[in-house]
Specification:
Number of helices: 25
Structural class: alpha+beta
Shape: elongated
Oligomer: single chain
Strand order of the largest sheet: 16-15-14-19-17-18
CATH topology of one domain: Serine Threonine Protein Phosphatase 5, Tetratricopeptide repeat
CATH class of one domain: Mainly Alpha
Helix content: 40-55%
């Protein structure tokens, strides 16, 4: 069968076939990922980018070629993740521009569009490297140009061009020393070849999947990678504007990090950069338009997941969980961040805003901050990454009664078919979730089964109570949790409510009286509620280190098995306010060490 043209429906189905094949190869791409950093997420990022295209272009499948190409380009920018995913997005933007207003693509028109896509791909990078996906895109585009002048059949054109792309892929270690060192091809380049393989299979067979991968070489053995720590955060955001000067923006980004990819157009641009200062990237983006989709992945943690030693079960929390950084690190607990904003100034919790900056703005900024739950996409990215490195995941979150975080996690877990994920409502908050997550992580380290760990978590939830003491009711009123009338009554009667998380939300479970020594009175109240048996204490404070140090000594003297302390994160801090104190009490009554 000969194919003389590609129309809109055929283009859409071909791209979908390519997408399907890359997604099946995700774990392998993660495994061979060593450039630009060995964080083991190239497959996850390319799969996420392409899955967004699949989801967002369903209604465009029967439109003309240029309409399909435009929809694919726009969706790819929305979903672009990682270095290779961002380059791929820019490839689609260039391809869309190259299709002009065509209803159909002849081989000549297709070749011209691919040539434009190639140029766009190179232009997106501040420092293009050969031996990467760029080399394969370039060689494939050149081969399409060369063969279409001799053949007018897309079956022959794509078959010949794919062979050239595979040869280009094979040569990537000759062009990039780090690939040669570890004996692998470039992961992004392999992903692009996989994409082309899926398209060729569809064009030849008319099938959307079931691609024969027997000809694709696999690494003979595992390898140990040297960790890269020059820049910590893989940072991305989307900018919407009217006249984005991408040349100027790219020059400014060069002062903030490396591995820069700037994809898009004058009206929409996607930033990808490795940096130690994610907030500086977002602040710069705000100078060019409206910034959305901010994310900053910790590449050091990703590298440890990909190449370090760890247990087979991952523990995941959201940043409504407060734990010290050293415990998160020691027990390998993964955190999906909540987002917050002071008006138009957006932040990723515990990543792009320091504790000191948060408390300063909370006190001085006339705009009271708002928090928003992690999106389904945030959880999906995290779960997809874990898929290649763990056999199970247990995800513990802030209660569904007070946040939509649980729902986002549940929906994302249903999207992931390759990793069994258990979603748990902690019925708690702040350092209360922290103690529950810590108990879960201890059970993982004790090599308990998933079933046993879930039983231990459920017992920890039942045996953990959190007490929240506020210095003032001003912030819960600003956040809409308490009415101004109740505040007036409480102030008049000098009542200090003690709050807690319960199944139906946050409720008052006690109170003290008077305007002085509120924290001392709260600790005395809690001391009367301490359980019989061995217990541990979690403390979190609202920019009040002296209060928490006093509380730590107090509960240690009362016989706590362990006392951990940290700061209240923004998820609760926006409501609790400065000088607040959170005390979580956990009775150690489970089967952890049996």
């Amino acid at each position: 069968m000969q194919i003389k043209y590609i129309d809109g429906p055929r283009l859409h189905r071909a791209i979908q076939a390519g997408i399907n094949h890359v997604i099946t190869r995700k774990d392998y791409l993660n495994k061979i990922n060593v450039f630009p950093v060995p964080d083991g997420d190239t497959g996850t990022n390319m799969a996420f980018t392409l899955a967004t295209i699949s989801e967002e272009t369903k209604s465009n499948e029967n439109k003309r070629v240029f309409k399909v190409a435009d929809a694919v380009a726009d969706a790819s920018l929305n979903g672009a993740r990682g270095n290779s995913g961002s380059i791929l997005a820019q490839f689609f933007v260039g391809f869309a521009n190259g299709t002009e207003q065509f209803r159909r693509l002849t081989p000549k028109r297709f070749s011209d569009a691919i040539k434009t896509a190639k140029q766009y791909s190179y232009d997106a990078l501040s420092d293009p490297k050969e031996g990467t996906i760029l080399s394969v895109i370039s060689d494939w585009a050149d081969s399409v140009k060369n063969i279409h002048e001799k053949h007018d059949d897309f079956v022959n054109i794509l078959d010949f061009a794919l062979k050239q792309a595979k040869e280009s892929l094979r040569k990537t270690p000759e062009k990039l020393e780090i690939l040669k060192k570890y004996g692998v091809v470039d992961a992004g380049a392999q992903g692009f070849v996989d994409f082309l393989e899926g398209i060729k299979h569809f064009i030849e067979k008319g099938e959307m999947d079931n691609v024969d991968t027997s000809s694709i070489a696999e690494p003979v053995e595992d390898f140990v990678v040297e960790m890269s720590d020059e820049y910590r955060f893989c940072t991305e955001c989307l900018i919407a504007g009217e006249d984005i000067n991408r040349v100027k923006l790219k020059e400014q980004l060069m002062n903030l990090g490396s591995s820069i990819v700037l994809a898009g157009s004058k009206k929409k641009a996607k930033i990808h950069i490795h940096t130690n200062h994610p907030q500086a990237v977002f602040t710069l983006g705000n100078e060019y338009g409206t910034v959305t989709g901010e994310k900053a992945d910790d590449m050091l943690k990703q590298q440890k997941d990909a190449h370090g030693s760890h247990e087979e079960i991952a523990i995941v929390v959201d940043s409504g969980c407060d734990l010290p950084e050293n415990i998160l690190e020691e027990f390998n607990i993964h955190m999906v961040p909540v987002r917050l904003n002071f008006g138009d100034n957006h932040h990723v919790d515990k990543v792009t805003i320091t504790s000191e900056e948060f408390w300063h703005q909370l006190i001085t900024n006339p705009i009271h901050p708002q928090t928003s739950q992690p999106t389904q996409g945030d959880f999906r990215r995290q779960y997809q990454f874990l898929t290649g490195h763990y056999k199970n995941a247990i995800s513990i979150h802030i209660p569904g009664a007070v946040s939509g975080t649980m729902q986002s996690a549940i929906l994302a877990s249903k999207d992931n078919k390759d990793l069994p994920i258990q979603i748990v409502d902690s019925q708690n908050g702040s350092v209360g979730i922290g103690l529950i997550a810590l108990r879960a992580a201890e059970a993982v380290q004790a090599k308990k089964s998933v079933e046993d760990i879930l039983n231990i978590i459920n017992q920890a939830i039942e045996n953990t109570t959190v007490y929240i003491g506020l210095d003032t009711l001003d912030y819960v009123v600003k956040g809409g949790r308490v009415s101004p009338t109740k505040k007036k009554i409480a102030n008049l009667l000098k009542i200090n409510p003690i709050l807690s998380f319960e199944k139906n939300g946050i409720n008052t479970i006690g109170k003290t009286f008077g305007t002085k020594n509120k924290a001392d009175k709260m600790m005395k109240f809690i001391s009367k509620q301490l359980p019989n048996g061995q217990f541990r204490i979690g403390l979190a404070h609202g920019n009040a280190p002296k209060i928490v140090e006093k509380a730590k000594l107090y509960f240690e003297n009362l016989g706590a098995e362990k006392v951990i302390s940290t700061e209240i994160g923004p998820a609760l801090g926006v409501h609790a306010g400065p000088n607040s104190l959170v005390v979580a009490v956990q009775l150690l009554k489970d089967d952890l060490y049996e």
